[in-house]
Fold this sequence. Notes:
This protein has helices spanning 16-30, 54-57, 66-75, 92-99, 143-155, 170-173, 179-199, 204-210, 218-233; strands at 3-8, 34-39, 78-86, 89-90, 127-133, 159-166. The chain has 234 residues and is of the alpha/beta class. Strands 1, 2, 3, 4, 5 and 6 form a six-stranded mixed beta sheet that branches. Strand 3 and strand 4 (89-90) form a beta hairpin.
Amino acid sequence: xxxxxxxxxxxxxxxxxxIVAEALLAGxxxxxxxxxxxxxxxxxxxxxxxxxxxxxxxxxxxxxxMREILRIFTLADAVICVSPVYFYSVSSRMREFFERCxxxxxxxxxxxxGKADTQVSPKPQKSxxxxxxxxxxxxxxxxxxxxxxxAVSKSLGLNFAGSVLRMESMYLKYPTLNPQKIGAxxxxxxxxxxxxxxxxxxxxxTKEAISARISKDDAEFEHHARLFWQKMRK
Length: 234
């Protein structure tokens, strides 16, 4: 049975990121795959010290939850990262997790200055797919997220299965505003999880369905956004 690790980094329970994660998990359950879901915000993960103590023995000096999470990580056939977008990037907890993956990497991988490897590396067997959940509609502001995930995948020897930006996230919290489109997005998320687990990739049409626009135009989005933030301030 294929095993998938979901890394969730939303500190606020019951939010839009949680809705996305639940749709992905539903797909894994429907497909009969084994799913391990780790909420990084509920885990004891201390910051990387940059001490390089992990280089000789691939073991961090911190004795926290990362040891068990990395054990599950190494066993997984695929990894799904789900994070809210905070100031145009992933949440700090997701970044902190990747920084603590240094024992799996070895410092020399960061010293190649973009030069090609002299040896042919085997084809990666583990795939990584990411979904970022954003409130706004300006995808250009979040362009660095996919670049980050791709670089991390390369450093960890993973097959990068792509990164999707799910904008207009407030609609996920209030599905009655457009139930048909939101239902289609949830179905696409479930499909993406099954594709990743079964084939190690997510098809382009599935990614497009996940990121499909919900509002009919900017004016409608701005109207609903004002109502959403007014309610959040109360």
